[in-house]
Structures are given as structure tokens and as C-alpha cells.
Amino acid sequence: MSAEISVPISPEELPLPHERFLNREESWLQFNERVLELAEDPKLPLLERVRFLAIFASNLDEFFMVRVAGLKRRMATGLLLRAQSGLKPSDELERINGIANVLVQRHSALFHKTIVPELVAEGIEIVRWADLGRDERTVMRKLFRERIRPVLTPLAVDPAHPFPNISGLSLNLAVTVRNPVNGNTVFARVKVPPQLPRFVKVSKDRFVPLEDVIAAHLGQLFKGMEIVQNHVFRVTRNEDLDVDEDVTENLMQALERELRRRRFGSPVRIEVEDTITPEVLDLLVEELGVHDHEIYRVPGPLDLSGLHTIADLGPTHNRGELSYRPFVPAEVIHADDDIFAMLREKDILLHHPYDSFSTSVQRFIEHAAADPQVLAIKQTLYRTSGNSPIVDALIDAAEAGKQVVVVVEIKARFDEHANISWARKLEKAGCHVVYGVLGLKTHCKLALVVRQEQNGELRRYCHIGTGNYNPKTARMYEDFGLLTADPLVGEDVTDLFMHLTGYSNHSAYRRLLVAPHSLRHGLLARIDREIAHHKAGRAARIRMKTNSLVDEPVIDALYRASQAGVPIDLWVRGICTLRPGVPGLSETIRVRSLLGRFLEHSRIYEFGGGRRPEMWIGSADLMRRNLDRRVEALVKVTGAQHRSYIADLLDRAFSDGTDTWWLTSDGRWLRQNGGADLQQHLIGTRRWRTVDDGK
After folding, report:
1. How does strand 295-298 pair with strand 267-273?
2. 59 is in an annotated binding site
3. What's this model's pTM, rounded to 2 decimal places?
4. Whether residue 8 has pLDDT greater than 70
5. Contact between residue 556 and residue 16 where contact means Cβ atoms under 8 Å apart
6. β-pairing, 374-381 with 403-408?
């Protein structure tokens, strides 16, 4: 793909260039490269750099399981005739693997050459078996005998035992054993149990990889045999689900079948230690059916996503100086507050994790469950956590006789097992559980409480958010939420739940934009309105904050707005296929990315450069799947103080004095050390007033 685009400056409606989009997969890898740059940053606390190493590894796993797997599937079915880069699909896959491999080697080198020595200097050691002393090995032998050996199942490969199924992301030992009686050599596989700690504690701050302990005791698994060699390997498989809802009578059962199949989807990557011998590697490649460009050779240990265990040593081992300083979110609603009286007076805008989730959203649901005047609670659940207090509150409400309706998205990627479990638990307690609209994922974040007031009036209280109802991730993800008793919002949310639980084509909303019916159209209409304002000499501006920007109609509309002269600022955490700063195409567009302690997750859409810009927050990213194949919702923010707070946040994010990454027209992300950490600023300035004092 050409890095330069020549665009003639001409009147409106000039044709847009063919190469106006950046490569999606490459942009995703560049996002993970920015995560790696945080791990490389010596200004960050050491254990947080360790955590970013783990996040990089987890992110790359998902990239292969979903994005690379999707490319291979479309190529195999003939749906992908030519990649976005213009290459043949097979060449594109090889190119993407090449880019990923460079990052993997950089990740591995950072771990071995920089992070491990720095950990040692702080008294924290990740060692291999050969580094253990005699007393330490004695302790490990006892641990192996009592806790590890009973859960191991060695599987030999011979005419009576076919090559075993290797589940995706499992860590395995490829073992070659020889029979000393007849000299026959046999290959065997030993799976490293995922239920046990990835790094085994030898002493307080000294750890050894679990596979090293197993490898040192292979003689106890293959008694009477000679251990010739052993090597660690790991397979990544296609883990995307394919459920045809149009021909499925029972979605739950079909999904459970797909989940069983997913563990053994087609391979998309194999990771091996760089010490592996050619004969063992050739056997694995042949049996698994992977290509040369899908082989990743790295120094052990493999699977550094397990480094979260090491990163957690800060708070658990009194090593706080090696981690971010503890942060206590602001308490928004006190236990003795009358939350419904508060909402009858004013809306409450929430900004997590700076505002406590447990004392706001969770407390809102818990109060509703306990309040005898509440008649009904309706809520969407996309991802939640184990032992969820939100789920417990909904169950309490149902058992108290309230009508409880829960829209559980059981197709939420990688949370399907958990969501099926929650759905059954809620159904058993008497909640009405539905799975949304046929053919669409329910991704909107909504809660509706119907309460009978003292005067007999029925009043609706709502929460509309940008993030999931998950107390655990709410401490790490940056998100907005609006608590409101606004009648128009209540009417809209009621209509939307009718659509989700019943049989309705309702698409006319007053304070909401809802996908797939009105959200894209609403955004495009507002972009066109800013073009008209600018042409008429009125103040015009567009600012957006999103996780991903890949939707072509929206990008083309932003290009048209830029060609008309509208200033546009885009804050994109991850994938961005828009090219900013191209003469004649996107000269007025700036794209920024911000990564840090918290995962930037909120979505904000602002239109207007005057005194009262229009602002929306909600669940939708700018991707085709969000706008066409999901139920998403944005809510209009009307409170003057709330809009001022969001505007100030955007001002700071786009300031040259803030630490961000800038996207160039040729697709490179350049880190800009402006000197100001936006997230740290927000931590230090709590607590702003969430209750708005004027509309």
C-alpha cells in the first residue's frame, strides 16, 4: 500500500481516493506495539511494566484467535479474494505474521534482557530449574509429588494411540522417550495443567515456571523409560464462534455445542522454545498442519500472559514502590442517601474508575432491589464478573416479588460460558431472561428501574453506560455512565427494552441513538450538519472518542467534513483505519491515542464548536459490527456541568501538553511526551461534583 496519497484540491463531492484506508490488521498490531512501548518505558514502575508485558501477550493471543483466524476462514471459503493491502490472501497472512513476529521477538528480548535483570535488582527472581539450589529442588519434588503429578496425563503417540487433540492456548511438553529394552523411541505429550499457578513460588520472591518443574520429573511419568528430550510448545486456534441463529431452535444448546468445538478449532499459530530440535518441530508442524510463517520461535518461558502473577507482587508483598500508588475511587452515593430523591432533582454523570462503581451503579441496582416501592427492574448484561453483586441484587429483587427482566448476551466473545451460567442462575431465581434480538448481539449498557412514588405516580430511573456491569473491570476500565430520571430517557429506554424482549421494529427515539436502526444515520446527519455550519460561517467542530474507528461510511463522512474545512479531533484507543493529515482529504483531522494505567474504554461523540455543543455517550464503537450487527445505544448528555466536564476532558486529551500517540498520514503512531499524564490528573483532581446543578 502506498504511504503517500495525492489528492487534488477541488470543489465539493470530489471523489475519495481508493487508498484512503489504513490496513486494519496492521493497525491492530500497532495498538499492541503501543502497549509494548509502555512496558519499555523506564519511567513507569517496574511491576507495571511487567503487567504491560502480560497484557501484550494476552492481546496477541486474541489477535490470532479472532483476526488472523477470521482471515484464514474467509480465505478458505473464498470470501477473501484480495486483502485490503492488495496482496493475495496467503501473502497477506504471511505479511501480518511477519509483523507480529517482529513484535514477539522485541517482547521476548525486553523480558530477558531488561525486565528480568531489573527484577533481580529488586530481589524478585524468575529462574529456571537449573538455577535452583539443592534445598529448593527438594521442596519442588515434594510439591510435584503431592500437587502436580496427580493431575498430569501423559499421552504417548504410537499405532495404538493417535496424536492427541491439543486445545488452544494450552501449554504442553513435547517429550521423546526411549524404551531401553528394544530401543524404540516414542513421542508423547504432557499438558501443563492450567489450574495450577503459571509461576511456582520457590520462596517469597523467587519463582520457577511450572513446566520446568514438570520437565524435571518426567522420569516419574514414564517409569522405566529414558527421557531423550523435551520441549515446550503452545498452539493458538480459531476460537471465533459460528452459530446460525436462523436455523437454530435453541440458541443456548447450539452455543454450548460450538463452545465444545471451539477448543479444537483450526490452528493459526504455534509457539515453540527456540531450543526445539528440528525432528520434534517437524512432527508438530505435520500433525497440526501449520505453515512456516505460523511458527514462532522464542526463548522460554512461553506464554508470558502469566506474568500478571508477578505484577501482583506489589500490593501483596509490600513492594508498593514498584507499582502504581494505590487509588481509592470517589464515593458517589453514600449508603444512607436516597438515590431516587437525588435523581428526581438532578442527573448524575459518572466517570469510572475515578468514581466508584460499587457506590454508584451497583448501589443503584441494590437499592432498587431492596426498595418495596420498586415494581420492576430491567437490565442488559454483556460481561459481568464471578460472584457478581449485580446478579445477586437482581436475584434478590426477583425473590422479593419484583418483575426482573435481564437481557443476557450469551454470545459475548470469550465470556460465553460465564454468561450461560448467569442466565441459568437468573432463570432459576425467577427472573425473565431473554437473549436479545435474533441475529444481533445486545451490546448496549442499560438499566431501567420502575418505581411507584408516594403519590401513586410511576416513575422510571435509568442508567446508560459505556462499559459493562462488571465491578472488577470497573476498577481498571475508564467508562462513563449517566444516572437519570429524565422522563424522555425513561420512555426511550422502555421502548428499547420492549424491542429487546418482544417483537418490535420501533426505531424513533428522542434522547437515544440506537443501532442498528438510527445510530449510524444519526452520526452521519450530525457530521453533515457541521459541514453546513462551517459553510454558513458558523462555528463547527467534531470530536470523538472511541476504541476503534474502521467503519467506512463514517470515515468517508469525516473525510468530506475535513474537505469542507471542519476541524476534527479523534481520540482512538486501538484500531484506526482513517488517514489523518492528507492534503486535500483529511488536512483538518488529528488522531490521538492514549494508553496508561487504566484502559480507555468510554465512547464520546461531540458535535458543534459553539457555546453549547451536542454530546453523546454510549456503548458503540465506530465499526460495522457495532453499527449494523449489534444493539447499541448512545444517550444525549444535556446537563451544563456534565457537558463542561466532558469538554474539558477532550480539551486535555487533544492538548499538545498531554502524553499521547499521534497518528501520521502514512499510518505510523509517534509517541509524544507532552509532560502531562491525563489519567494521573484525573486521579489527583477528584472529587468533582457529579450531581449537575443546571441544564
Report:
1. parallel
2. yes
3. 0.91
4. no
5. yes
6. parallel
Place of cell 509517541: 671
- The DSSP secondary-structure symbol of 247 reads G
CATH 3.30.870.10 residue spans of the chain: 339-506, 513-684
At residue 382, the pLDDT reads: 87
Q: Is 257 annotated as a binding residue?
A: no
Quickly name the fold that domain 24-322 has. Answer: polyphosphate kinase like (3.30.1840)
List, for residues 323-349, the tens digit of each pLDDT value: 999 889 999 889 899 999 999 999 999
* Contact present, 279 and 265 (Cβ < 8 Å): no
DSSP letter string, 438-471: TT-EE--EEEEEEEE-TTS-EEEEEEEESS-S-T
The gap between the terminal CA atoms of the chain, to the nearest Å, is 49
So what's the pLDDT on residue 316? 67
Instruction: Provide, for the chain, the percentages of residues in helix, strand and coil under a 3-state DSSP scheme, each rounded to the nearest 5.
Output: 40, 25, 40
Which of 5-19, 34-48, 378-392, 486-500 shows the lowest per-residue confidence on average (mean pLDDT)? 5-19
Active site residue 107: no
183: left (phi over 0), alpha (psi -120 to 50) or beta: left
Query: What's residue 410's pLDDT?
Result: 79
Known binder of ligand: residue 499?
no
Checking if the pLDDT of 527 tops 50, the result is yes
- pLDDT value at 666 more than 50: yes
- Cα angle value 432/434/435 (rounded, 5°): 160
419 is in an annotated binding site: no
Instruction: Sort 301 into a burial class: Cβ within 10 Å, 0-12 / 13-18 / 19+.
Output: buried
Class of domain 339-506: alpha beta
Closest by alpha carbon to 34, among 656, 669, 672, 621?
A: 669
Give residue 10's pLDDT. Answer: 39
242 pLDDT more than 60 = no
Q: Out of 443, 499, 534, 642, which one is annotated catalytic?
A: 443
Q: Is 231 annotated as a binding residue?
A: no
Name the segment(s) of the chain with CATH classification 3.30.1840.10. Answer: 24-322
Where are the alpha helices (H) located in 77-112, listed in sequence order?
Answer: 89-110
User: Given a cut of 50, is residue 362 above it in pLDDT?
Assistant: yes
Backbone CA torsion sign across 260, 264, 268, 271: positive
Q: Tell me if 340 sits within 8 A of 451, measured CB to CB.
A: yes
385 versus 16: the higher-pLDDT residue is: 16
Q: Which grid cell is 131?
A: 538455577
Give the CATH fold of the 513-684 domain. Answer: Endonuclease; Chain A (3.30.870)
